[in-house]
Specification:
Elements lengths: L2 H16 L6 H6 L8 H13 L3 E5 L16 E6 L2 H11 L9 E3 L16 E6 L11 H11 E12 L4 H4 L2 H11 L2 H5 L6 H9 L29 H10 L2 E11 L11 H11 L7 H4 E10 L1
Parallel strand pairs: 1-2, 1-4, 2-3, 4-5
Antiparallel strand pairs: 5-7, 6-7
Length: 301
């Protein structure tokens, strides 16, 4: 399968995954019923308010989960999403908030044409939240360039990702995968054909909770979040990709902190939630390891 075939397959699976999620996604992740408050919502709102942006594009807007909370910025809001059901829900939600339906359309973050402002020039700011995990690795650079090219000179972009380095703190199957695939790179070690290596790797696996976290499946037979492409990203490397793309004032902002490895949350649920929220500081160095997500921001020069 070549790169284009992998991209098409990944997008088809994502559409399938999110097709039945349009009306409940915001409740699941952004409402008071969510497992953790959407702290990144306030983080991005403040960032955009401070920037003075008067036109904002949300690339991969879902059911307007973020856009609906930016309506008080007095900015022209636009968005697009890969999944038709999400586009329809976003249009429904945003219309009473003053955003015409034509400002929300269907498109892919890998397609430069999807980032074009209808009948106008470039945007002041472009954000992309909850999308990059579902993009094949060979398309990361394309997404960054598309975001960059969609804003004017001096415009801002923000790209969110799941934190790969969080695996150094979780002590679960993500940790094992990170140790073996990214750090030790055991596939290369196996080429040395050492008879004792398999036993060592098995012993390493015993050090982690391989049953955690549980795999998230779909609701109505469609593939779930963990059953489609759902990658993590190294914040150090993604920041470098921003800089390589010519963006300036690049910064990594962390969110969704965990005061202890997440497997212990069920033993101290209220304590865990309170203390984790108390840690929320996007510039705390501990975010590299104790925050499960981050946003890279930058300015087009």
């Amino acid at each position: 399968m070549n790169d284009e075939e992998r991209r098409r397959a990944a997008e088809a699976a994502v559409k399938d995954c999110y097709s039945t999620w349009a009306q409940s996604y915001h409740t699941d992740y952004y409402s008071g019923q969510a497992a953790y408050p959407p702290v990144h919502q306030g983080l991005l709102h403040s960032w955009l308010a401070d920037s003075g942006a008067r036109s904002v594009l949300d690339a991969g807007c879902g059911p307007a989960s973020m856009l609906r909370h930016l309506a008080d910025l007095q900015a022209d809001l636009y968005g697009f999403d890969l999944t038709p059901e999400m586009v329809n829900e976003a249009r429904r939600v945003m219309k009473p908030l003053g955003t015409p339906p034509e400002r929300i359309w269907e498109g892919s973050v890998t397609d430069p044409a999807a980032f074009r402002r209808p009948n106008r020039g470039s945007f002041d700011a472009a954000i992309c939240i909850g999308v990059l995990p579902h993009v094949p690795s060979e398309c990361d650079e394309t997404v960054i360039h598309n975001l960059r090219d969609s804003v004017r000179r001096g415009g801002l972009i923000a790209l969110e990702a799941r934190n790969q380095l969080f695996a150094l703190f979780t002590l679960n199957r993500y940790s094992y995968d990170f140790f073996t695939n990214e750090l030790a790179q055991t596939e290369q070690l196996k080429r040395a054909e050492n008879a004792g290596l398999e036993a060592v790797l098995s012993g390493l696996q015993d050090r982690f909770r391989m049953d955690l976290p549980p795999v998230r499946s779909g609701k109505s037979g469609e593939p779930g979040y963990d059953e489609v492409l759902s990658r993590t990203h190294n914040p150090l490397l993604l920041k470098q990709q921003f800089e390589d793309a010519g963006l300036s004032q690049v910064e990594v902002l962390f969110y969704h902190f965990h005061c202890l490895p997440p497997m212990f949350e069920e033993k101290l649920p209220e304590f865990f939630r309170t203390q984790s929220l108390a840690m929320e500081n996007p510039r705390d160095w501990r975010g590299y390891f104790m925050a499960s997500a981050f946003i890279v921001v930058g300015k087009r020069t």
